[in-house]
Amino acid sequence: MSGLEAFLLTVIAASTPLLLAALGELVVERAGVLNLGVEGMMATGAVIAFAVALATGSPLLGVLAGALAGAAVALPFVFLTQVLAANQVASGLALALFGLGLSGLIGEGFVGQPGVRLERLHIPGLSDIPFIGPVLFGHDVLVYLSFFMTAAVAWFLFRTRAGLILRAVGTNHTAAHALGHPVRLVRTLAILFGGVMAGLAGAYLSVSYTPQWVEDMTAGRGWIALALVVFATWRPLRVLAGAYLFGAVWILGLHAQAAGYGLPPQFLSALPYLATIAALVLISRNRTLTLTNTPAMIGQPFMPER
User: Fold this and answer.
1) Fold of the 3-293 domain
2) pLDDT digit string (tens) for 182-196?
3) What CA–CA distances, in Å, run from 134 to 126, 127, 139, 149, 247?
């Protein structure tokens, strides 16, 4: 395996959980909801996926369980923000802390146990092509699912009536309600979809990226996914590009440590987060681009008139 081939493979692996989680959060925010609990949903999805895969011997069942766990953890957020109209920022932060604590509690007995890896697909003929085969046709199903979901989310948001309704709810929930659209139901479904995607991202970490469980294995990826949505100005294809940009920065930091360039390891570990801050600063300078795509109702609770 050449150095470039190995680099590309590691970038794809590092970018996939960011892409999955960010796509889910993009749909949530397009509906006018800000859910800061992505990190907690990812962590819970990771530990549940690992536990189910280990118990059943089937990593696919683990992935499914991780997705459902992400949605289940999102349910309290739904109740707080859509039923009680609680502050979304506070509720999201509580969800992040709850998910991290719950995952640590559930995963205490799994630390150090070898996991069950999700097998990579092998396409006869295509996967055997030098360089191109491993880079394009040698990944597991979640990598290809992330590409499919990028296209599916873009199609749903901008080519379907349901996507138009969701964007209308995020733009002006009062007007959408006046037209007869179920605002709280739309937002509930969007939040649950975000939970599923965050759970899938966590499952990828524990059954594919590193098939093991260690506490806090999400390592801040949920927060990067949140920033990635803003960086992409709420556009799915830009989320794809941004996820791979941040994934490349993440891997470059690891390669720099391995190459021994003499840079402080603390700086290299912080490099992805510094890149996130720098990207957000650059994006914030273009007010027109940001305001054009920002959902107007994001973070604002909705209570129908009784």
Assistant:
1) ABC transporter involved in vitamin B12 uptake, BtuC (1.10.3470)
2) 999 999 999 999 999
3) 9, 6, 7, 21, 18
